[in-house]
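question for whoever is on the cluster today: can someone run the full assembly for these? two chains, 734 residues total. i dont have access anymore since they changed the login thing
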Amino acid sequence: MALSMTKTAATHIQKSLTQRGKGVGLRLGVKTNGCSGMAYLLEFADKIEEEDQVFESQGIKIIVDPKSLIYIDGTELDFVREGLNEGFQFNNPNIKNQCGCGESFNV
Amino acid sequence: MALLQISEPGQSTAPHQHRLAAGIDLGTTNSLIATVRSGIAETLPDLDKQHLLPSIVHYSHTAPPIVGYVAKKRANQDPLNTIASVKRFMGRGIADIKTTGSRLPYHFIEQAQGMPLIHTVAGDKSPVQVSADILSVLKQRAEMALQGDLIGVVITVPAYFDDAQRQATKDAATIAGLKVLRLLNEPTAAAVAYGLDKEARGIYAIYDLGGGTFDISILRLQRGVFEVMATAGDSALGGDDIDQAIAQWLMQQANIADDATHHHIRELLDIARTAKETLTTEAEITLKIPLDTGNCVNITLTTNQLNELIDPLIQKTLLACRRALRDARITPEQINEVVMVGGSTRMPRVREKIGEFFHCQPHVDIDPDKVVAIGAAIQADILVGNKPDDDLLLLDVIPLSLGIETMGGLVEKIIQRNTTIPVSKAQDFTTFKDGQTAMAVHVLQGERELVTHCRSLARFELRGIPPMVAGAARIRVTFQVDADGLLGVSAQEEISGVHSEITVKPSYGLSDNQIEQMLKDSLSHAHEDVAIRTLREQQVEADRVINALRAALKTDGKVLLKQHEFVAISEALDGLLQVKGGQDAQAIKQAIEELDKVTQEFAARRMDASIRRAMKGQKVENFMENN
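^ ran it for u. tokens below:
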């Protein structure tokens, strides 16, 4: 079981964390809503819960709750630019289909 | 495909429900739009990677308006249809505009009321419309970058903008299809960008030297609220004047006559700007100056020479700084921090002189062109709810609750503390006694429940209420606090329309410590206050019931009640009168309920009697018709 991120993603997350001035890492997860079943969650993490799993990639802690991990195991987080738009993208090997927007998915 | 941003813990939104917000610096010379993505506030560039959008709009009769750099290029060929610096005309009448400059740059069409229109080939445009065209371009840029509609924006305005100018700015946003979450003072936005609002308190100077305007603002922060203590400035002083000074010197050195062609001067000004920008990092620069003969001559400009040229201009800004300090009644030493805004503050000499003047190192880490937009973006992000509540900025809020006195010496809060201003809230009150024709409105400030524990701000009376039974009149009391913190209280009886009002300045005379003490008291006395409020409420209710019952007994008691019923009611009434003066809220409540029980039959009979009276001598058809 593992989660990882690209170097570009790490650079950006590090910048965000520094700017924010606090936080132990990044929380990844899934929520059960969205137009195609589940939705990704991407938040700053201020604390690690007991049941959380913690992975480290490119020097950044990725925190995930065990239930979410089932759906996103093996995911690589990437940071991409598309014209004026920029942001993070989940490259999740588990998904069977996703809505056109890429914000929600099904396994 | 949508890309995700990092949210604050617990603030993630559902897909497609992102709370997109932006901050806009709608400047005289340049405008910018910024947003917070993954916790970082940054300005958004256009497709050519330009962050600044020149606040210039070019109108033509064939195409939609062009905004920005392209419009700027048209200024020379088509000056009358290329509107620049429109901010100077916002919310201004033609007379105001005439006093700001000796000659009007455009063909203005005077209006009977309000702002004049600017005549262009695309029709007559009001300054509000021109601003809306600038805002539309920024809106489009943000929505492309964020892949969604903006929920709301924070737009910055100069601290000295009056109501008309602020309203004009809001109107421009509405025309552009933007929802204004708040207008924020430019100096406050700059302070927010540097996180100064996180400090407990302080006095800050915001030094804003832009392309064509200079502003100095002295802000005082206390309890998270920024107050503008003083502003001063020069609406015709900025980077352009510095370029002028350098160009003048170059002309002297190269023996170029003053009557050089417009094109030639333009060229020299561009060289001057380049020289100025280079000398922020270099000690000297050699410039190739074109002569009218077509030849060129090399001239070296050193930092020392540059400083000599610009010192008189910096002196002028310091004069304004002194004026602002005097108005704020403080000395330079009392300034805790200085924030630099505007491109011209990149010049090392400006920073040095300002540092000397205020005896402190000015903040320069954030790009001075972007700092205002960034502060606005941070504020907008909070206002749309992307931050947890405890991070909420208390900018421009009411420090203590405002309310009025009600029966029993209680305070009814109408505007709660920490409500952001401007705000307007109304509440309906009624008369307490039959035939009451006047009502005293006592305006109070504070968190406690009793009038005696709050601060009295003002009193006024509403007279001429038509006599009615108690509780029938509807008196609407409206509290309105404008952006400057001015409180206006008005009371109006809805049936007769009689009206009365007063204006008060609520924070006047209250020091930081006093406000803090008032808040502390409200917390430490919380239980006590709740108990006393319950008691007073029951006492007031008891009085109301007693008054109503006595009036009813007087008119109908003899006719509608048998002797033993009359006695039972009198006994229950005595019971209530006995406990009413005591401290036991529960006992009063029980006595009221007791009295209510024994009078129910009496109330029913009175109702029947009054209906009979009303219907006497009438035919059923009459009622049908009326309905």
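summary bc i know u wont read the tokens: The interface with chain A takes residues 1-12, 14-16, 37-40, 44-47, 141, 144-147 of chain B (CB under 8 Å). The radius of gyration of chain B is 33 Å.
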